[in-house]
Amino acid sequence: METKSKPNFIVGFAYLLATQLTSKLLPFFINTLVARRLTPEEFGVPTVHFYLLSTAILTTREGFRRALMRDSVKDASLGYAWLVLPIGGFLSIVIPLGVIWSQNISTREPYGLALLYYGAAAFIELCAEPYYIRAMRMSAFKLRLFAETTSTVLRSVLTYALVSANQNNVVMAFAYSQLLYAISMAVIYVCATTKAPEKSMLRDGATVQLIGIFSLQAVWKLVLAEGEKAALIAVAAADEVGVYGLVASLGAAFARLVLQPFEEAAFVIFTRSVSSKSQSSKEKEVFNALLRVAIIFGSTAVSV
């Protein structure tokens, strides 16, 4: 049985905030620099089209994360984490090929080839999911910070370098960069996690039900959060999609950098058992205080 370290809210929040700062702010900065070199149409394809494709595939893991990171789930049930690979692998093939078929795109074209690369990158990232779940159950926030920071820096540097070197093949520059990001994430988690969950699965109907419920919630959340992007791609011109991508990334920066860490830290920490009621009460008091600060900053940002 794994030895679980008790999560500390302050430490967890600090690491998660640092993770968000590097994984969200750096790509936004790089995208801003890259946008100056590209037309709105060229910028919109990777930041909206490919982002939507990757998000749809990676939504596969959300149900497993939400269910298997709960303290009530037994270690023997963590083998269900491996199910994300066949499900994610299926979607990584079907979704890109579905887009290629529906739009009558050749895989010899840069756009069609980039779709396949993004599908492969999403699957590679999903391959690290069992290791990620094991690490987060151990409250390895520092590992997540290192993995996402390293991978994001590599992706951002390669994106800028490739776009600067050759502006005639922008979509492949983003595709290569995303593939490097996925490989980096997978390698770091696999190498840093001493033991992956066993592939054998204990029959646990409650855990399976949780995975199903959280997966449905993740799909519904995807529809609500990204549905407008899909609608925009269907009806808007390519240059309008590019302008939307730049404006949307700027407008949502505050929510991703400040408010999202609260959600992640609260879920990871308060679904884990604590050793005493007094400690639980103290952590809740700290969380409530930080949440009030976030609401104040959020209200200020909206009003401005």
Count of strand segments: 0
pLDDT averaged residue by residue: 80
- Characterize the biggest β-sheet: none
Euclidean distance between termini CA atoms: 51 Å
Query: Structural class from helices and strands?
Result: mainly alpha
Number of domains: 1
GO cellular component, one term: endoplasmic reticulum membrane
Family: Belongs to the RFT1 family.
Keywords: Endoplasmic reticulum, Membrane, Transmembrane, Transmembrane helix
Pathway: Protein modification; protein glycosylation
Feature tags:
single chain, 304 residues, 12 helices, mainly alpha
Molecular structure report:
It is a multi-pass membrane protein. The chain has one domain (about 10-304). The longest helix is centred in the C-terminal third of the chain and has 31 residues, at about 205-235. Residues about 275-280 have low confidence and may be disordered. It is built from 12 helices and no strands. By secondary structure, the chain is mainly alpha-helical. The chain is globular and about 55 Å long.
